[in-house]
Design goal:
Helix content is 31%, strand content 19%. The protein is of the alpha+beta class. The strands form seven sheets. The chain has a five-stranded mixed β-sheet. The protein has a four-stranded antiparallel β-sheet with strand order 10-11-6-12. A hairpin with a 4-residue loop joins strand 14 and strand 15. The chain is globular. The N and C termini lie far apart (89 Å).
Length: 644
């Protein structure tokens, strides 16, 4: 409900609040523990006290008599989260609504989480790379601008006092708070409500409010300054109707910051130094308009499998810009699993040395800078999306590139995003083997098709065409339907590819020109910095389309081209995407003959041999032929009989 320019919401209970037991006692004990911690750190105590005082002064909580609180009710333990790199709030107090009461039920246990209202982080970041003029901001205290219905504030109770010499006091929180499972939905639903109610009068601002917010963070822009400034104006007006204020503004163009009050700016482009902004996990440098990879120093500790897994989990690369480097760490962790090391014992010296060398090299990723604007500061006349797939026995992945043409004819190709997966560890039990390379290449093709489909849906670039590339001719033959008999593993993935892509979109690329090759193998930061194929795609994308590799069209006319066939052993285990197939169905087909077209020169001896689909048999026959020729040329006239 919106009244007096402020939303009031109710808690979305999924079960009866009567299930909540007593919570005052143990929450009081946790507060005493917090108080002792704050007493040992004077600076932390000062920040904590300042935060809570602001909370009280702004009317976001008020004191109540604990003896007059009706049952059921709920006390929330609280603690602090430090964000040293924040430009506004270094310390934030967070509530723990998952703390169990005497009945072993917490507040979060009886609250609906609610559906996801906004787009995913990946989608927001992709869109942010499109506009020529970009700006970023966030909503000040978004949760705390949304009031809780008075009758439900008894489920948001806390204990607090500024000093241990003062009596302990009980407060009820009057707003939506961090730590409750329903808070993200309640807050984003309020933004959605504002957008729907004001869409007619403020269409540009409301469209951005729906599409370009991730929680309270705004990342948007436009291809001309006039439109960008109008979006800013409409957003400020619409959000003000709900009691929200945009602050921490930054932009790659000074004109978009001129009308913003100085106290609401995060970056001043007039400053001599290049300022960086951390937003949604990425570092953005507005003046040079690039993304920078920031590697935080990791505390030196003993190299164990647990420590390594923790460090890998801290690697945040939502667009997959440095995925080839992270792949090395993922493969290393998989190796530890294969060697069956426990979580906490120290690793052997050789493995420790390898990991320390890798970790030290990560600091060089600070030099990686990716242009935010994929169209190179212009507005293109045509746009193409090219997605490349590749696989090795260890991993597979897909990398997407935007190829754009400027009005003057200049062609720009830049990395947009990537996705990668580690191949399953081989299981050497009875009836189960590792996936073959063709099957892993097929998994990579599925990943590429899904990534291309996702990009098309997220970006909605009018007139954009999409191309898919792989260096596996076997996969291309599967996609073009050259075999009628397919095992379930192959058939299901081909059906998925056909559902989200057209077979005419698929083309063959040489391995040397496939940028996804480094993604499936992994590389070091040093090599990635100089890997122009990874950041800009193959050279042919920068030229005329007439010079591209031709479309893959299997030729079934044996008068023009002979078919060579390859025999491929297929595994009987579910693949990386977890097909739940029965063992009998898998065992029906353990071999498939896949035709691969080989364009041959007239007179080629090898290509004219009919060899019954067996390369080993072809080798034996050829060997006998050469032995026979050698026998005929034997000057001594001795008989030489082939053995075996």
């Amino acid at each position: 409900m919106l009244s007096n320019n402020q939303f009031t919401v109710s808690l979305p209970f999924s079960d009866s609040a009567e299930k909540l037991g007593s919570s005052a006692g143990f929450v009081k004990s946790r507060f005493y523990a917090l108080e002792r911690k704050l007493a040992r750190n004077g600076d932390l105590r000062k920040q904590y006290t300042k935060f809570m005082k602001e909370y009280l002064d702004l009317g976001h909580m008020k004191e109540v008599n604990p003896d007059q609180i009706p049952h059921p009710h709920y006390f929330l333990p609280h603690h602090c989260v430090l964000k040293p790199d924040s430009t506004s709030t270094k310390l934030r107090v967070v509530l723990d609504a998952s703390a169990k009461t005497s009945t072993n039920v917490s507040l979060n246990d009886i609250l609906h989480v609610g559906p996801t209202v906004q787009d995913e982080l990946f989608t927001i970041l992709l869109r942010f790379r499109l506009p020529k003029f970009a700006f970023k901001a966030d909503i000040q205290m978004m949760y705390r601008q949304i009031r809780l219905q008075e009758g439900e504030r008894r489920f948001h109770l806390i204990w607090w006092r500024e000093d241990s010499s003062l009596p302990l006091r009980c407060y009820e929180l009057c707003t939506v708070t961090y730590g409750t499972s329903s808070a993200p939905y309640l807050a984003t639903r309020c933004l959605e409500k504002l957008a729907s109610e004001n869409a007619t009068k403020y269409p540009l601002g409301c469209e951005v409010l729906r599409r370009d917010f991730y929680m309270d963070d705004l990342m948007s822009g436009a291809n001309n300054l006039t439109t960008a400034k109008e979006i800013q104006r409409q957003l400020v007006t619409v959000l003000k109707k709900g009691g929200f204020k945009l602050r921490k503004w930054s932009s790659n163009h000074n004109n978009l910051l001129q009308e913003i009050p100085s106290e609401d700016l995060e970056v001043h482009l007039n400053d001599d130094n290049e300022a960086s902004i951390k937003t949604l996990g990425l570092i953005w440098l507005p003046r040079s308009d690039v993304f920078q990879i920031k590697v935080n120093p990791i505390e030196q500790r003993r190299a164990t499998k647990r420590a390594i897994a923790s460090e890998i989990a801290q690697s945040f690369d939502p667009l997959g810009v440095v995925a080839p480097v992270i792949m090395v760490a993922q493969l290393f962790l998989q190796e530890l699993w294969a060697l069956k090391y426990d979580w906490d014992p120290a690793l052997p010296l050789e493995l420790q040395t390898r990991w320390c060398t890798y970790r030290e090299g990560l600091q060089k990723l600070d030099k990686v800078k990716i242009p935010r604007h994929v169209f190179a500061e212009g507005v293109p006349t045509s746009v193409q999306i090219h997605t490349f797939a590749d696989a090795t026995e260890k991993a597979y992945g897909a990398a997407a590139y935007v190829r754009s043409t400027k009005p003057e004819g200049t062609v720009i190709s830049r990395l947009l995003c990537s996705r990668s997966r580690v191949a399953p560890i081989a299981k050497m039990t009875a009836g189960m083997t590792s996936l073959t390379i063709p099957r892993l290449e097929l998994c990579a093709a599925v990943l590429a098709a899904e990534l291309a489909s996702r990009i098309k849906a997220d970006l909605k670039i009018e007139g954009a065409t999409s191309y898919l590339w792989t260096d596996s001719q076997i996969v291309l033959c599967w996609i073009h339907g050259q075999t009628e008999v397919r095992p379930a593993f192959v058939g299901r993935r081909i059906a998925r590819i056909h559902a989200i892509s057209n077979k005419d979109q698929w083309r063959h690329v040489k391995t040397a020109n496939n940028p996804a090759d480094v993604l499936s193998r992994g590389t070091t930061p040093d090599k990635l910095l100089e890997h122009y194929l990874w950041f800009y795609g193959p050279l042919f994308l920068h030229g005329r389309e007439a010079l591209w590799p031709s479309c893959f069209k299997p030729n079934t006319n044996r008068d023009e081209a002979k078919e060579k066939t390859e025999e491929i052993s297929l595994p009987t285990e579910p693949g990386p995407e977890q097909d739940s197939l029965g063992s009998k169905e898998q065992e029906k087909v353990d071999k498939i003959v896949c035709p691969v077209i080989s364009q041959q020169e007239e007179g080629s001896f090898v290509n004219k041999i009919e060899h019954s689909n067996s390369f080993q048999k072809l080798q034996r026959v050829t060997a006998y032929c050469f032995r026979f020729i050698k026998l005929l040329r034997n000057k001594d006239g001795k008989t030489v009989r082939p053995s075996g």
